[in-house]
Each structure stands twice: as C-alpha cells, then as structure tokens.
Amino acid sequence: MKLTTVTNVSVDGVMQGLGGSDEDRRGGFERGGWALPLWGADVETFLGQVYQRADAFLFGRRTYEIFARSWGAIDEMANAPIGRALNARPKYVASATLTDPQWDGTTVLAGDLAAAVSELKANREGELQVHGSGTLVRWLLEHHLVDEITLFTFPVVVGQGTRLFPDAGPDTALDLADFRAFTDGITLQTYRPAGRPRYAT
Q1: For the CA atoms of 159, 37, 32, 133, what is the dihedral angle to 10 degrees?
Q2: Whose CA, among 11, 77, 140, 177, lies 20 to 30 Å from 167?
Q3: In this structure, CATH architecture of domain 6-193
C-alpha cells in the first residue's frame, strides 16, 4: 500500500483545533475553529474524493476518537462522502491503550508499530491514508514510512497551537507532485519525500 498523509494546516503550520472551539484545547489552546470559516464547497467536494480514494485509514488515538464521535456517529456526517468512506473501509489505530474500539471495522495496532505499518504496506494494495494525527504523522516521517504528504494550507496565521512539524526533527527533501488552489485562498500541495535535502556550501 501507498501510505499518504492528509493534513489541514494554517500558514504558520498549526494543525490543532481546526474544526471547532472545543475540539482540542490541549496546552491552553484558545483559537480553535480557524479552518471552518474558510471551508468552501469546492474543498469539501475535492476532499470527499480524496477520502473515497482510500482503501484503508490509519489514525492516532486522539484523531480516531474525534472522528468516531463525528463521522462515525452523527447521521448527517456519516452519510456524507467522507463519512461513507470512513464507515465502509478498514480503520487502523496506533494506540497502546485503546482496547475496545466501538467504531465498526477498527483494528488496534498496539505492538510494534513500524512492523505493523510495514506489513500493511507490503501485503495490501491501494492507499492507506492518515488524516490529522500529528504525533503519528511525525513518527511515520521519522521512520521513513510516508510515501506522499498532502497539505491543505489555509490562509490564516493562528499564532499558537501544535504544529505539524516539530521545531527540531529529521530533515527531508520533497518533490512537488500536485498543486491546486481553491476558493477563499486555500491551497493544496502534494509532496513525495526525496531523501535528505541538499545544503549550500
């Protein structure tokens, strides 16, 4: 399987609490809901197509629980294109503490995560998508398990909150595979990791 990550970020790289004021208040975060006012119909349609393209999904525990309470439980959301894809396809959760997932079609990856993800990539066809799940995405990148990175960048500087990439981490060169612009200034960039960057001497 090809492992792809799909992340909504602000211009300053924040991915925390994009959906609502109470979605994620960790660390005293008070600026939740920054993405929804910019969310247009063209982005929603395109993102629905991205979800429909997936053959399976991989989540960190926090994002999994947010999605299970929304796309997996609210009828209006479950019957939307994104919800239909999520409810119909296998879901994997990287967690050492989740023991009884309630969302149908969920498998918990509680042991050697690198081995489990590598096995999924080697033994299944199609696309394994990771949405949100910042801690997991950073770990997957560090372990060279990501084949493609898609960023939906929103034209806002949030100024606080958890960012997708850490202040110090592995360096990675990226090849641009796709780019497009949507209404209200949202842009999409799809990158493929391309080894270490080259540095000027």
Answers
A1: -90
A2: 177
A3: 3-Layer(aba) Sandwich (3.40)
**Cα(105)–Cα(114) distance, integer angstroms:** 21
Contact 186, 154 (CB under 8 A): yes
Q: Indicate the domain borders of the chain.
A: 6-193
pTM of the model: 0.92
Q: Where are the beta strands (DSSP E) in the chain?
A: 2-10, 56-60, 91-94, 106-109, 127-131, 148-154, 174-181, 187-193
Pairing of strands 127-131, 187-193: unpaired
In terms of DSSP bridges, do strands 106-109 and 174-181 run parallel, antiparallel, or are they unpaired?
A: unpaired
